Amino acid sequence: MKPLARRTDALAQSDIRAITKMVNAVQGINLGQGICDLPTPEPIKAGARQAIADNHSIYTNYAGIRRLRAAILEKTRSYNKIPAANDEEVMVSVGSTGAFVAAIFALLEPDDEVILFEPFYGYHRNLLDIVGVDLKYVSTQPPDWAIDFDALERAITPKTKALVITTPNNPTGKVWTRADLEQLLALMQKHDLFAITDEIYEYMLYDGHEHVSLASLPGAYERTITLSGFSKTYNMTGWRLGYAVAPPPVIEKMGLLNDLFYICAPAPLQYGVAEAFEMAETYFTEMMDAYNAKRQLMCETLERIGFDVAWPQGAYYVLASFEPLAHTRPGFDDAATASRTLVQQAGVATVPGHSFFQEPERGRYFLRFCYAKEMPVLEQACRQLVEAYG
Ligand SMILES: Cc1ncc(COP(=O)(O)O)c(C=O)c1O
Questions:
Q1: Which of 16, 51, 60, 374 sits between 20 and 30 A of 120, alpha carbons compared?
Q2: 350: closest CA among 311, 315, 308, 320?
Q3: In ligand 1, which atom is closest to the CA atom of 240?
Q4: How many domains does the chain have?
Q5: pLDDT confidence tier of residue 34, bands split at 50, 70 and 90
Q6: Which of 97, 100, 164, 273 to mutate to test the pocket of ligand 1 (most atoms within 8 A of CB)?
Q7: How far apart, in whole angstroms, are the C-alpha atoms of residue 237 and residue 335?
Q8: Which residues are paired to 308 by β-bridges?
Q9: pTM over 0.85, yes/no
Q10: Of 253, 278, 303, which residue sits at a domain end?
Q11: How far is the CA of 200 from the centre of ligand 1 (A)?
């Protein structure tokens, strides 16, 4: 038989799914996968039920229903301070991932160079690989995962076309500061680069960290594609609804691609999620307070059992180092082993650090814990960790 497409060669089942299988087999607690088991807010569910009853069952505009785009535009202008002019600059897609795919197909040719910050979110790396771009990695280091702008400038060549940033970050929890973004923009302008920014965790911030959108900086919007979505903020990863905001020439091509790839995002669910914008502002503060308590419990537990913990500034993950344990306990030689050990000895699943690094060795001593869990479940997981290693 003839071979399958070469672009699929490097694709393998992600570590996350493999570990999920393992922890399910022992009926343990999954702190690996970035899914949130909290309920979707009632008004959103009621809106979708009503839309189904009302027969909103046909294709929508490829960029999404007008009501939803108008609401996203308003939020983008007020919360993100992005100077999008009208709802033609908003495109609803099948998750922010759908919008990311449209963005990279609209922007990038095979052999263009793209800069990714490491540790990275695996879907970004793998999707960019599929397009065939040449990836350049710029490392960030704990405890604060600061950006090394000299290293960044050294990574830029005449073939560099774009950078991808994620703020707040998965897996590190780093929140890019305004000063970081200003420095980034100066380099983008100097070297004529685009940016794709993934801001899916934009409402999850700790210790007074502020979410700043790159596209809100003067001169940035024209070269920036901003991605966000509903999966994380409203606990609805399976609804597959996200969006992009970008200037006209870019968003127009992205819309055509969105049409080609997906035709549109699920119609009744678009009506449902439009209700999110009618919810009280207190929704965000209550969510933040809840995540803050979970972050504290997770990080304190990990410190108590001997991890080195860089407390996240945003999002709902902690990428913690078990290097101290590697020298004192069996089963902690590297991330894959440690992740299996934790499932076997504590019944807790995590993601091995090498999944987030180009050179697996750099992720050798890291595990990622996701604390987007109901509090009693997280408390139970922490009890199990303390019982096993406390
Ligand atoms: C950084 C980042 N971007 C995007 C996604 C997926 O978002 P969506 O459900 O909107 O496709 C995730 C999910 O884990 C993520 O961590």
A1: 374
A2: 320
A3: 9
A4: 2
A5: low
A6: 97
A7: 27
A8: 321
A9: yes
A10: 278
A11: 6
